[in-house]
Amino acid sequence: MACNVSVVHQAMASAVAQPNKAPPQLPCAHLSSSSNSKPKPFKLLRSSQSSFASTFSPSRPQTLIPSRSSKAPNFLVVGCGKVEPLRIMISGAPASGKGTQCQLITQKYGLVHVAAGDLLRAEIASGSENGRCAREYMEQGKLVPDEIVVMMVKDRLLQPDSQEKGWLLDGYPRSSSQAIALKELGFKPDLFILLEVTEDILVERVVGRRLDPITGKIYHLKYSPPETQEIASRLTQRFDDTEEKVKLRLHTHHQNVKAVLSMYEDITVKINGSLAKEDVFAEIDSALSRLVEKRKSTSESLAA
Predict the structure, then answer these.
(1) Active site residue: 238, 247, 277, 295, which one?
(2) DSSP summary character for residue 76
(3) In a domain? residue 79
């Protein structure tokens, strides 16, 4: 049945004159010859033909006519889907290589690196009350209370750059309570990477680790020595990078890692962190690439 477009125009004009009111129900919402017949949807005309949008004139009544072409209109479908940024967690014992791998991951995938340890050390350096409290726990090889760390991590993950580019959360959560807190705040990773390294290698890595206070670069006296004597002379050792303290930290890590893994069991990828850093990254890169491709495929399907 034909639809009188002049009535449509009157309804549209009324909507423009009263923008705060809900749009009216147009009288040609259903085109049927009787109440028992099913409405027939209109097919859009080809771009080479005159379309309703280009020929509509309020000065004369018009009729919408369903296309009788047997062929489907050849329209380009433009998708509005957007690929969501990656949300990755990486975990491992002290000196398992998280910092090195995080650097390689962020270089390739552009994620924002959020290291809970760095947030804590910055708080300690500021001399705040939370910083002094955190230092006491860290010196004893214990986990810093959740109420101190969780809010720092939450605030960083909510920053615009983390929301836009995606984030790589380094060394957090370290306990089931921290994992639960993040979940309740709405932070769920797409992938949880666990670096596994034997304890004797971990101790050797920690004890030989040094920090350049000017550049922030991490060196190792055996595996990655400083380039010049000038750099070597200014290197410092973190207060908790001693053999005694690292063994306490390893004990705490092993006690809590199983509980954390139980929260992310279905998205966990375990990587042998004892390998060369290039080989470790190759495995991580493979897992992330699969995730990116899957996400792109899903986005394209939704946009089609």
Answers:
(1) 238
(2) P
(3) no
Question: Parallel, antiparallel, or unpaired for β 218-220 and 209-211?
Answer: antiparallel
Active site residue 249: yes
Pairing of strands 167-170, 87-92: parallel
**For the chain, percent of residues with pLDDT exceeding 90:** 44
Instruction: Count CA atoms within 13 Å of residue 235 on its CB side.
Output: 20
pLDDT tens digits, one per residue of 12-63: 444 444 444 444 443 433 333 344 444 444 343 333 333 333 333 444 444 4
Residues 6+ apart with CB under 8 A from 184: none
> Distance of CA 262 to CAs 30, 157, 283, Å?
54, 23, 22
Does the annotation mark 46 as catalytic?
no
Residue 64 inside a domain? The answer is: no
- At residue 297 the predicted structure's pLDDT band, cuts being 50, 70 and 90, is confident
Q: Is residue 252 part of a domain?
A: yes
Catalytic residue, candidates 135, 156, 245, 249: 249
174 has catalytic annotation: yes
Which of 156, 209, 210, 245 is catalytic? The answer is 209
Quote the CA–CA distance of 256 and 209 in Å, as a whole number.
24
Say how many domains are in the chain. Answer: 1
- Spot the catalytic one: 156, 174, 210, 245: 174
Contact 174, 253 (CB under 8 A): yes
Domain that holds residue 266: 87-115+150-289
What is the domain-level CATH number for residue 162? Answer: 3.40.50.300
Bond into 66 cis (ω within 30): no
Whether residue 209 is contained in a domain is answered as yes
Whether 295 sits among the annotated catalytic residues: the reply is no
The pTM for the full model equals: 0.64
Asked if 60 is an active-site residue, the reply is: no
Question: What pLDDT score does 144 carry?
Answer: 84
